[in-house]
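tool_call: predict_structure(chain=1)
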Amino acid sequence: MSPGLKIFQPFHTALQVGSRTDTVADVSPIDIPPFERLGPVEPVSPVVLSVPHGGRDYPPVLQEALRVPLASLIPLEDRYIDRLTEAALGVETAFIARRARAWIDLNRGEQDRDPRLDDGASTMTMPFVSAKVKGGLGLVPRRVSGAGELWLRRLSGEEVVARIVADHRPYHAALAAALQSARARFGTTVLLDIHSMPPIAAPSAARVVIGDRFGRTAGSRFVHRIEGVVRDAGYAVALNAPYPGGHILDRHGAPARGVHAIQVEIDRSSYLDAKLREPGPGFGATARLLREIIDALADEIAPAAIAAE
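tool_result:
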C-alpha cells in the first residue's frame, strides 16, 4: 500500500423528495461549508490538490427549485472523486468542494453566467457566451444530458452573486493562498486539479486525460511524468483531448512564475461499479494510481525544492 493510502468506506443517503426516493449522498443544510481544506494550512508538499466537482451537498433551496428528480443531477458530479482523492492523500494540502456542482461550478469563471437562467447575465454586460454556457453548463448549470432543463424558475442576479461570494471566491482565494505559500517554500509548485469523466466510447480510448490548456498552464516535464506513470500502470492516456482543462487552470496556472497547473480526468469506470453510481472493485487500484501521479510530480520538483530549503 502506498504511503497515505487510506481505506475507503462507501456510503450513501436515501433522500425522500415528495413521493419519490432518490439515492444521493451528503445532503446537508446550506450552513455546511462549501468546501473543505485537508492537510496543512501551509503546504509541506509542492503539490497542491483541487477537487472542484466532487460535492454532494444539495441545499434545501436547491431541491425546492428542481423540476427534475434529484438523482438527475448525479451526472454533473465527478462521482466519488472526492473519496478517491482522500484515499490517495498523503501530506498534501487539498481543497475539496462539498457543495454540489449544480449549485455553482467552481471550474467556471464568474463571467460564465447563463442569460437563459440568470437574470444578472445579459448580452450587454457579458457579450461573449462560451460554448459551455450555450450548452447549459455555465457557472450555474442550466441543463444536464438525459434530463434536460433543471429548474422551475429563473435565478435572480442577486442569488447568483450570493453564491459567487459565499462559495466561488473563497475557494479560489484559499487555493491561490496555498499555491503562493508552496511556491515561496519550494520555488516551484504544481496544482493538480482532479476530475472524473464518463467512459469514452471508442476503441483504445483513453482512461486518463491530462489537460494543460494546450501547454499554457504547465511545463511539459510535469505532463510527461504523469503520462509515464499512467502508461506504466497500464492505462491508456491522452493529452488535452477531449478535456484540456478549464477555469481553474487558466486562473491559477502561471508557469513563468513557478506555478504549474494540470488537470487530470479519470475514467469513472476505473473506480466505480458498472452503473457508475457506487465505488467498484477498481477503487483501490485507481487510488494507488493517483497516489503515484502525486508522488511523481513531487519528485519532479524535488531537486529545486531541496535547493530552496
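agent: The CA atoms of residues 12 and 25 lie 5 Å apart. Proceeding to next step.
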